Each structure stands twice: as C-alpha cells, then as structure tokens.
C-alpha cells in the first residue's frame, strides 16, 4: 500500500510502505508443465463499459488475496525454491503460477456470484464497487464487506491445540455469521466501540444501539508485538482503542 508523508518543504509525497520481503519466484518451467485452467478472466473493455455512467466508485485491493487460498499438500513441493536462507515451499497460492488468476476469480465468483457485474467488479485481485449516488455506493460497499467477512469467519479451521473446544468453536462461528448478528450502517444513530485486551491480543466490536440492544457492525482483532505485550493493563486497553478501528 501507499502512505502520504510530509517532506522538508512541507509537501505531501506518496510513499510506498515497506512491510518486509517480497519473494518473486520464476515458475516458467512449472507453468509449462501445468495443465491450464480454462476458467475465463474478464475483458477490461467490457468491465469499463459496465462501470461507466456511475457517479461514485470505491476501489479495494485484495491484500494478500492469492495467499488466502491453500495449496493441496500433495502439490506444495512443486512450488519449492531455494535461497541463501534455505529451501522452502508455499502452503498457499503465490503469484506467478499460471492458474492463480483463474483460481482466485473462481473463488471470488463463488462468494460474490450475485453481485459481480451488478454492484461490483473483480479484476485480478482488485475490487471495484460502484453506485449512482454516495448512499447507494456506500450501501453496496457495506453489503460486499459483510459478505466477505461472514465467509471468512465461516471457513475458519477448527482449533488444534484444545480438542474439547471444537464444539464451542463451531457454535461461536454459527452465532457470528447468522443474521441478525451483523447489521448494516445507519448514519442516523451514534456508534459504540467496545474494546478489550488480553496478555497477547486486543479486540474490538463496532456497533449501534437498536431498541436498547447492542448490534455489532464490525469485528476487529490484532495480536500484540513483543513490545506491546509488556504494556500495563491500562496501556493495553488504550492500545485496543487506538489500533482496532
């Protein structure tokens, strides 16, 4: 992603964030031996024709989108590469594989099948939500994010460290993804932010009061860094307020 910083002359300069190593592997030989997936990708000109005429647009980047798709354990060794630090193989789908774009689009259409071409578009790992008014575009964006969030929660794997909690974990997933747990935005009502912190993580729930009952809109959580885990209890609680929104 990009952030805007101020230079010595008080000018705002867009700067790319450095978040760590980005590995680029040459998979040409692997792609030559791979049976191609004929799943069709959208044509740019057709997509632009559907987008034109709308007054408002919202563009989102599928951050690490490809890396959210696991590779079959039997095929992981095919992605193996070597570097000065050792020999590694991907457990999730990286960029550079010939069938990666088609696989990702197939997954996105499975999630947003009734929304693509009507309220949003997906091109590679970029998402475009459109509308003929600000409220219309915002409503469609909210619907898209709710769909993505519910799908992610529903597909969370069972915990492996404590076998006795699997039933409770499934119950929690069911309660978090079924209506009317998650509600859409209503700008006429005040927001409420509930935060909490443990020794190793922070969490928050954004919601609103409806008929005296709290209705969540969005959940957020984050694992603390080693330095943050040394904060006092009060500092951890404040960290949850600052970091989660």
TrEMBL record:
One of the record's GO molecular function terms = RNA-directed DNA polymerase activity
Q: Which Pfam families match?
A: RT_RNaseH_2, RVT_1
Q: Which organism is it from?
A: Tanacetum cinerariifolium (Dalmatian daisy)
Q: List UniProt keywords, sorted A-Z.
A: Nucleotidyltransferase, RNA-directed DNA polymerase, Transferase
Answer whether the UniProt record assigns the keyword Nucleotidyltransferase to this protein: yes
- The protein's name is Reverse transcriptase domain-containing protein
Domain Reverse transcriptase positions: 19-149
InterPro entries listed in its UniProt record: DNA/RNA_pol_sf (IPR043502), Rev_trsase/Diguanyl_cyclase (IPR043128), RNA-dir_DNA_polymerase (IPR053134), RT_dom (IPR000477), RT_RNaseH_2 (IPR041577)
Residues covered by the Reverse transcriptase/retrotransposon-derived protein RNase H-like domain: 164-243
Q: Which domain of life is it from?
A: Eukaryota
Stored SUPFAM superfamilies: DNA/RNA polymerases
């Amino acid at each position: 992603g990009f952030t805007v910083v101020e230079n010595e002359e008080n000018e705002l300069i867009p700067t790319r964030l450095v978040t760590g190593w980005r590995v680029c592997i040459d998979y040409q030989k692997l792609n030559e031996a791979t049976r191609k997936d004929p799943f069709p990708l959208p044509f740019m000109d057709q997509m632009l024709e559907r987008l034109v005429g709308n007054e408002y647009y919202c563009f989102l980047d599928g951050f690490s989108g490809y890396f959210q798709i696991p590779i079959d354990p039997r095929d992981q060794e095919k992605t193996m590469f070597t570097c000065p630090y050792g020999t590694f193989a991907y457990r999730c789908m990286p960029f550079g594989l010939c069938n990666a774009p088609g696989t990702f689009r197939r997954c996105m259409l499975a999630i947003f099948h009734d929304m693509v071409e009507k309220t949003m578009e997906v091109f590679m790992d970029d998402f475009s939500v459109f509308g003929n008014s600000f409220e219309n575009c915002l409503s469609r964006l909210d619907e898209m994010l709710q769909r993505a969030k519910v799908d992610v929660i529903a597909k969370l794997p069972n915990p492996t460290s404590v076998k006795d909690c699997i039933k409770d974990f499934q119950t929690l997933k069911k309660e978090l993804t079924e209506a009317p747990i998650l509600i859409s935005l209503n700008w006429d009502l005040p927001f409420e932010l509930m935060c909490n912190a443990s020794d190793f993580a922070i969490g928050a729930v954004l919601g609103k009061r409806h008929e005296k009952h709290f209705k969540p809109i969005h959940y957020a959580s984050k694992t603390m860094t080693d330095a943050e885990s040394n904060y006092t209890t009060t500092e951890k609680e404040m960290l949850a307020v600052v970091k989660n929104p």
